[in-house]
């Protein structure tokens, strides 16, 4: 698997020693970055075997000896070996790319074979060859960047903006969302060619428009190449509706940029945003830049190819890991760093063989769900109990401490409206969680009709109350409190009587310091449900769950996805309320299967509660305990409505009901 790597990115890593010749054996490589280290010795001659490499960076090291033969590397577009001690004659052959840029500044190059015919970008400043005259002169002058470039405007000479606003390319005065784009793979070199920048701006706008984001235009300025040879731009994104973005607009645009949608011909990048000017309390979130998983994977590759000593160390570590997997808890240190042996309450350990048998060798016919973590299988354990087995796929396994923390957290949650953990498996390199089986699927499936039954108004209120009680228990009665962090309609499950249970705690966070009302953490969650204040400040609180729950409440009313045809459900409901013309409340956006809105007792109060939950400011949102009490009051109002229908109708789900009487949400079983 290692010999199929495409990107070898180890620039600025304080590496020492020689470049291993085995690097030339990885012929699938496209990008090699070893610049800004302390590597010494010659450049391995077999690097010319890397015929697929487009970008080779070896600059700012202590490399010596003659230049290697690059005549076989016909795919090269950018070769940077500047600031070394290389000598000899440069010969790049006659089959080089039409876009090839060669940077050999500050070496000891004495001659260049193609100096009379080479018409691409070549930088030889600081080499002995530049002391002569003639054909080399054009290669021996310092080339300037284009810091003065800015996206042109469309004849806006008559438009004058206030000092605190900026003129957009489309002649609108607005407050743009601003940041810096850093490209990690410099795939072109001529910064004076503005067509590159126009293409980039068009690609960005195309991405925003295809995702139906409220963006009017983008402006690029100050293209530069930093000390690591990374291309960077200043980016301004202008809103299309008002003169400023709201928190939701910032979070959706920022989410798209920080998740690196592909930009043709520009390679991978990161976006480092600046604090937005137009709402209080925004803090600049950190940008992790390079994916941690990619760095770890690349580090393993380096260990593999650097030599036998590293290989022996790696084998020893793998042997130790195998022992831990065969009996993980017995081998964990009982200190604070490891957390000691897991303290479980009511959950049991399953062997891999038990779970393999009860799922018929993890047969596809038993798959009941899947996601980024892995697949979920239905199975029957020895006690004839149906269970759902969540099996982590290879590549998504959390470390031992993280897995231990998760099962400890799940094992101590005991509430009728929270899915129970039955047990877990941690052996043979597998991590599996075993839950009680919830037969009627997700709330999302029920609302979409996929489950085969309809939910009438009273049943939807009951589902809202059940899931609110589960969340309120986590926030107010669990010790320490737990923030779910990924509340959505696919994480609310319905049992055989359509009682709701909150599920999937993969992103949950403990509120271990209860003196604070938030936890500072990297932003995670699901687009459309994510609290914009959490996205902006990186401060997670129980009110972040409240916001997500408010989106679920709006789904219960409309049966619409949070983002549908590019329209955000919060905005849709706000507009429906603002444009109310008929006698019934938001009739036009109601789920048609609910019937006439006049028969839906408490509908107006329910929607008002949902809209309070999705307030931009967390301080204006209710707590989950308050949400529980309000839904109980709404259910009483609905049951007193003269048009009141029972919880189950012939068109909905035929099953038992536990009534609509209010009860304490502490979850006594």
Characteristic key phrases:
Leucine-rich repeat, LRR (right-handed beta-alpha superhelix), Ser-Thr/Tyr_kinase_cat_dom, 669 residues, Alpha-Beta Plaits, 14 helices, Kinase-like_dom_sf, six-stranded parallel beta sheet, Phosphorylase Kinase, domain 1, membrane, globular, six-stranded mixed beta sheet, non-specific serine/threonine protein kinase, ATP binding, disordered C terminus, 31 strands, 4 domains, alpha/beta
What report would you give on this structure?
There is one protein chain. This protein is α/β, with parallel strands linked by helices and 669 residues long. The protein folds into four domains: 2-139, Alpha-Beta Horseshoe (Leucine-rich repeat, LRR (right-handed beta-alpha superhelix)), CATH 3.80.10; 166-273, SEA domain (Alpha-Beta Plaits); 327-436, Phosphorylase Kinase, domain 1 (2-Layer Sandwich), CATH 3.30.200.20; 443-639, Transferase(Phosphotransferase) domain 1 (Transferase(Phosphotransferase), domain 1), CATH 1.10.510.10. Helix 9 (457-476) packs antiparallel against helix 14 (624-639) and helix 13 (603-613) packs antiparallel against helix 14 (624-639). The longest helix is centred in the C-terminal third of the chain and has 20 residues, at 457-476. Residues 280-297, 307-313, 319-328, 330-339, 511-522 and 644-669 have low confidence and may be disordered. Residues 648-660 have a biased composition (Low complexity). The chain crosses the membrane at residues 292-313. This is non-specific serine/threonine protein kinase. Residues 362-635 form the Protein kinase domain.
């Amino acid at each position: 698997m290692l010999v199929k790597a495409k990107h070898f990115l180890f620039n600025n890593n304080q590496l020492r020693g020689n470049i291993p010749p085995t690097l030339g054996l990885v012929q699938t490589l496209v990008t090699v970055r070893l610049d800004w280290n302390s590597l010494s010795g010659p450049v391995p001659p077999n690097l010319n075997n890397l015929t697929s490499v487009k970008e080779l960076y070896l600059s700012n090291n202590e490399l010596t000896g003659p230049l290697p033969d690059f005549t076989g590397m016909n795919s090269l577009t950018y070769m940077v070996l500047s600031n070394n001690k290389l000598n000899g004659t440069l010969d790049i052959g006659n089959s080089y790319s039409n876009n090839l840029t060669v940077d050999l500044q500050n070496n000891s190059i004495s001659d260049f074979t193609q100096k009379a015919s080479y018409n691409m970008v070549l930088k030889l400043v600081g080499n002995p060859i530049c002391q002569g005259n003639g054909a080399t002169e054009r290669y021996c002058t310092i080339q300037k960047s284009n810091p003065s470039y800015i996206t042109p405007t469309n004849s806006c000479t008559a438009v004058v903006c206030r000092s605190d606003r900026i003129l957009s390319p489309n002649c609108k005065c607005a407050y743009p969302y601003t940041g810096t784009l850093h490209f990690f793979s410099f795939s072109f070199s001529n910064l004076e060619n503005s067509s590159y920048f126009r293409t980039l701006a068009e690609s960005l706008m195309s991405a925003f428009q295809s995702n139906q984001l409220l963006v009017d235009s983008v402006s690029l300025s100050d293209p530069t190449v930093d000390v690591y040879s990374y291309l960077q731009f200043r980016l301004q994104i202008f809103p299309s509706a008002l003169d400023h973005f709201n928190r939701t607009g910032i979070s959706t645009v920022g989410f798209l940029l920080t998740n690196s949608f592909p930009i043709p011909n520009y390679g991978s990048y990161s976006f480092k945003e600046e604090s937005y000017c137009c709402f209080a309390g925004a803090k600049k979130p950190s940008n992790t830049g390079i994916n941690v998983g990619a760095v770890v994977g690349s580090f393993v590759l380096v260990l593999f190819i650097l030599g036998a000593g590293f290989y022996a160390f790696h084998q020893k570590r793998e042997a130790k890991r195998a022992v831990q997997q065969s009996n993980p808890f017995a081998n964990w240190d009982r200190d604070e760093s490891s957390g000691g042996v897991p303290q479980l309450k009511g959950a049991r350990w399953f062997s891999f063989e038990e779970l393999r048998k009860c799922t018929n060798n993890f047969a596809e016919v038993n798959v009941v769900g899947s996601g980024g973590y892995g697949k979920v299988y239905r199975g029957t354990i020895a006690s004839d109990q149906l269970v759902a087995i969540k099996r982590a796929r290879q590549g998504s396994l959390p470390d031992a401490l993280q897995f231990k923390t998760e099962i400890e957290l799940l094992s101590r949650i005991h509430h009728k409206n929270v899915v129970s953990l039955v047990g877990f498996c941690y052996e043979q390199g597998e991590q599996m969680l075993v839950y009680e089986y919830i037969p009627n699927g997700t709330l999302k499936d029920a609302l979409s009709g996929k489950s085969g039954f309809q939910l009438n108004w009273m049943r939807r209120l009951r589902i809202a109350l059940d899931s609110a009680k589960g969340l309120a228990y986590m926030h107010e009665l669990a010790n320490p409190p737990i923030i779910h962090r990924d509340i959505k309609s696919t994480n609310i499950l319905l049992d055989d009587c359509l009682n709701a249970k909150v599920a999937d705690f993969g992103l949950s966070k403990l509120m271990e310091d209860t003196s604070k009302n938030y936890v500072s953490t990297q932003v995670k969650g699901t687009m459309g449900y994510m609290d914009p204040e959490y996205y902006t400040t990186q401060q997670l609180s129980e009110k972040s769950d409240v916001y997500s729950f408010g989106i679920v409440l709006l789904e219960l009313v409309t049966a619409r996805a949070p983002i549908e045809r590019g329209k955000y459900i919060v905005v849709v409901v706000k507009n429906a309320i603002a444009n109310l013309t008929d006698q019934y409340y938001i009739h036009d956006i109601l789920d048609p299967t609910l019937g006439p809105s006049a028969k839906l007792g408490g509908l107006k109060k329910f929607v008002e509660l949902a809209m309070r939950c999705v307030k931009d400011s967390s301080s204006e949102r209710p707590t989950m305990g308050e949400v529980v009490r309000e839904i109980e009051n709404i259910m009483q109002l609905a049951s007193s409505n003269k048009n009141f229908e029972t919880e189950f109708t012939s068109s909905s789900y035929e099953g038992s009901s536990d009534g609509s009487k209010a009860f304490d949400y502490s979850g006594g079983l």
